[in-house]
Design goal:
The structure holds 2 protein chains of 2 kinds. By secondary structure, chain A is of the alpha+beta class. Helices cover 30% and strands 18% of the residues of chain A. Chain A has a 5-stranded mixed beta sheet with strand order 2-1-5-3-4. Chain A is globular and about 30 Å long. By secondary structure, chain B is α+β, with helices and mostly antiparallel strands. In chain B, β14 and β15 form a beta hairpin. In chain B, α3 crosses α25, α22 crosses α25 and α22 packs across α31. The longest helix of chain B has 21 residues. The two termini of chain B are 23 Å apart.
């Protein structure tokens, strides 16, 4: 299994310390609005991540969070506990705004 | 049949319907004659236009009796009623003929800027018959049409041809559709190009043009066509534009192109990798995805006619072995077919390969499919070095990929075999189990194991494996619903409800290809049939409603299905290769389906569930049924794909596990046949055809 997509060592190096935190990855238009690809999160649940995003990037990102798809280690939170899904230090949270192409 | 239009009800006959000219141009290249053919108004009403009207013409003229590569095969270049208006996303042009690749009904849709110019010349389409001895091109203007010599253009690529023809006719606003060397060399999946990056890609329409020695069609017009209700149409248009302004899907397409899908697609196992052998390749989207392109080589965006989305990418690669002048970049299908499918991680090579396909005039999907097949066959020892002229095929070999594209276009060495498509190749070299096609058309880049709806989409699409013939992709992704047709959306990994969903999706898909409108634009704005009915009602003056439009969708689908039958297609042809139904043989063994969750499920207001009455009912049900049967329930839950594989890896030796994870294709297909009323030979029943007013089709099909 390749999730999470980056190794713990890589992530520690990026976070510049030994402290382990869940990694939040942003995609497509959400990434563009946030101006950032990923960041280590303080949140302990998915709901807190969504709150954190609003605080971190302002109201501009709210529109991308409506109907967004949230995966924790590759699993949709719909199969977990939704916004109440708890996060562990090694977890990777991927957030996609609603999109399609093909 | 449809109810009468407002004018007809008043007692008089509508003199001219809106949105159409009521006539097409009929060109015979053998006799070198050009004439106008008037199309009866009821044909427009019942078949709209575009590929629907083309199918009706094809049927009426017994087109199936002609071989695909013969002078008698009619090449139909068709507009729809929406073409040439300023309704968002109506740049599309439909090109139809019997396909040399599949042998059955072929159609391909293209964006760009040709369609409005053709509309303004005063014709709804051009039907080309016969074949010229010398290369020619067709020049269509307000004054009529002219067959001109194209000997000096034969051998030129599509980018050059377009430039030269614009100079030759001395009008920069003239628009050109043309073929490249692939079409001239009758590559079975040659395409027709416009605006450098817009292609009528599938089914080998370029080969049909090549056979007729028709290098190009140039159009330039100024005529204004009638609109039945100007104010009504303006209101409908504004509603659609407003919806697009706030559409997240439209915003994503604008920012990153159709390739925005690659990252999420890979997360759910929808992006075919290594000839459909792997479900997940983490580096793929990072190297080839739309976001990466936007951050690196993108110079600007480009739009088709009257489209506010502008999903086209213009890129430039300034240096390196794959240097490329500023021009159209890969869209999703090209990024996957000439990228992940070859497990190739070079974005530059991918764009170069896309450019080569564009210049030579070849469909990127079929081209990628045939190269991936050949690579696997080479690996398996079915194709040998002696067959390839010493070329060693393999995964992630950009230079080999580019060389193969060139050889296919010019039919050199192994390229001559590859130019026939994977079905033909696999019959010659073997390896039919990994020749991924339906009815001879190579599968596009969406994996049915990720979204089960795509299995039915591929198997029952008229022209073979096609993802644009219906809106199942959007529905399975959770972005659209068919509530207005009374059809519920189904779970991504359950057979239940998929057949009904597919039938509804096909109704909409057919309307898009006949009206004619871009599926991206329409679906991004919500894909509402009611809004489409409103726009078409105002435009044409025919009394379309949601029900009537759904019926038109059915009518067109059935006539095309019947044409397929008359060309020889049966139930046996509605099959999918086992490779794309069973769990992936390599890489991670995919619990990726846990990434897809129907969005509407998460919108259930939990507050309501806490209501006392619900609590009481639930408690009593649990007491009565759940607890005494807990063993049975847990066992049956474990059989459901969603629950059974959570976090587990596939035990390859366990046949039961493999069975559970395999797409329940047969079950879905049986249900689909029942809903569509298809008999054991794969033909629509007489009763269903007659219900739709297709008595003539029933008589020919059932004798």
């Amino acid at each position: 299994m390749t999730w999470p997509t980056s190794s713990m060592d890589e992530r520690r190096a990026r976070q510049g310390g030994d402290e382990e935190m869940p990694l939040v990855k942003l995609y497509a238009t959400l990434r563009k609005a946030a101006g950032e690809k990923e960041y280590p999160s303080q949140a302990r649940t998915v709901g807190q991540v969504l709150e954190e995003l609003r605080e971190r990037y302002g109201d501009g990102v709210i529109r991308y969070l409506r109907g967004c798809i949230v995966l924790v280690n590759g699993q949709n939170i719909g199969y977990l506990k939704g916004k109440r899904t708890k996060l562990k230090a090694e977890d990777e949270v991927s957030i996609f705004p609603p999109l399609a192409g093909g | 049949m449809l109810p009468k239009s407002a004018e007809e009800e008043k007692g008089g006959k509508c003199l001219m319907m809106g949105g159409n000219w009521g006539k097409v141009l009929k060109v015979d290249l053998t006799e070198r004659t050009i004439e106008e053919e008037v199309i009866p108004e009821e044909h427009y009403r019942d078949f709209l236009g575009g590929s629907g009207l083309a199918a009706k013409w094809f049927f009426d003229h017994r087109g199936w009796e002609a071989e695909p590569l013969s002078p008698e095969n009619p090449l139909m270049i068709m507009n729809g009623p929406l073409s040439g208006t300023n309704y968002p996303g109506v740049s599309r042009l439909e090109i139809c003929a019997r396909s040399p690749l599949t042998g059955i009904w072929g159609e391909a849709s293209m964006g760009g800027h040709f369609s409005p110019q053709l509309k303004r010349t005063g014709y709804d389409g051009i039907i080309v018959l016969g074949a010229s001895e010398k290369p020619v091109y067709l020049y269509v203007t307000d004054e009529g049409a002219e067959i001109r010599d194209a000997s000096h253009l034969w051998g030129k690529d599509t980018y050059e041809t377009e430039e030269l023809l614009k100079q030759e006719v001395g009008d920069k606003r003239a628009q050109v559709i043309c073929i490249g060397p692939a079409g001239e060399n009758l590559v079975k999946f040659a395409n027709v190009m416009n605006d450098r990056g817009s292609t009528a890609g599938r089914c080998g329409m370029g080969a049909v043009m090549g056979y007729k020695r028709l290098k190009a069609v140039v159009a330039r017009g100024n005529k204004k066509f009638p609109v039945a209700d100007e104010a009504g149409f303006k209101a409908a248009r504004e509603k659609m534009s407003e919806a697009l302004k706030f559409s997240m899907v439209a915003e994503g397409l604008h920012a990153f192109g159709s390739n925005v899908h690659m990252e999420y697609g890979m997360a759910i196992g929808d992006v075919p990798t290594k000839n459909w052998r792997e479900a997940y390749w983490a580096e793929g989207p990072e190297k080839l995805g739309g976001t990466t392109v936007a951050e690196t080589i993108l110079t600007r965006t480009h739009s088709c006619f009257a489209c506010p989305i502008a999903c086209k990418r213009i890129v430039e690669i300034k240096e390196g072995p794959y240097r490329m002048e500023e021009g159209p970049g890969s869209e999703y299908e090209a990024a996957a077919a000439l990228g992940t499918l070859q497990r190739m991680d070079s974005m530059e090579a991918n764009h170069k390969a896309n450019e080569l396909c564009n210049r030579y005039g070849m469909d990127v999907i079929s081209c990628g499919g045939v190269i991936a097949y050949a690579t696997e066959a080479f690996e398996a020892g079915l194709i040998k070095k002696s067959d390839t002229g010493g070329l060693k095929l393999g995964w992630n070999q950009p230079d080999t990929l580019l060389e193969l594209i060139r050889r296919i276009a010019f039919r050199e060495g192994i390229g001559d075999e590859m130019a026939e498509g994977v079905r033909s190749m696999s019959r010659k070299f073997g390896g039919e189990e990994f020749a991924i096609h339906v009815k001879g058309l190579e599968c596009p880049m969406h994996d049915p194991r990720a979204l089960w709806g795509m299995a039915l989409t591929y198997a029952t699409s008229i022209r073979g494996a096609c993802h644009c013939a219906d809106s199942n992709l959007y529905v399975d992704l959770g972005l659209l619903n068919h509530n207005e047709l009374g059809v519920k959306r189904s779970w991504p990994y359950r057979a239940k409800g998929k057949a009904a969903q597919t039938v509804a999706s096909q109704k909409k898909g057919v309307i898009a290809n006949s009206a004619v409108i871009c599926e991206y634009a329409w679906n991004a704005a919500g894909g509402s049939l009611a809004e489409m009915a409103e726009a078409l009602r105002a435009l044409t003056g025919f009394n379309y409603t949601v029900e009537e439009l759904a019926k038109v969708g059915d009518r067109i689908w059935y006539i095309k299905r019947a044409i397929g039958n008359l060309c020889g297609a049966t139930r046996e042809d509605d099959r999918l290769p086992r490779r794309i139904l069973e769990p992936h043989p390599e890489g991670i063994t995919s619990n990726l389906h846990l990434a897809v969750f129907p969005q509407f499920m998460s919108m259930v207001p939990m507050g309501k569930l806490r209501m006392e009455r619900v609590k009481e009912t639930t408690a009593s049900l649990m007491k009565k049924y759940l607890f005494p049967n807990m063993d049975k329930i847990l066992t049956s839950l474990n059989k459901l794909p969603v629950f059974s594989t959570r976090g587990k890896k596939l035990e390859r030796k366990d046949p039961e596990e493999i069975r559970r994870r395999t797409v329940a294709f047969d079950e879905m297909l049986e249900e689909y046949y029942r809903l569509r009323d298809i008999d054991e030979k794969g033909r629509p029943s007489r009763r269903r055809l007659e219900e739709l007013g297709l008595n003539d089709v029933a008589d020919v099909l059932h004798g």
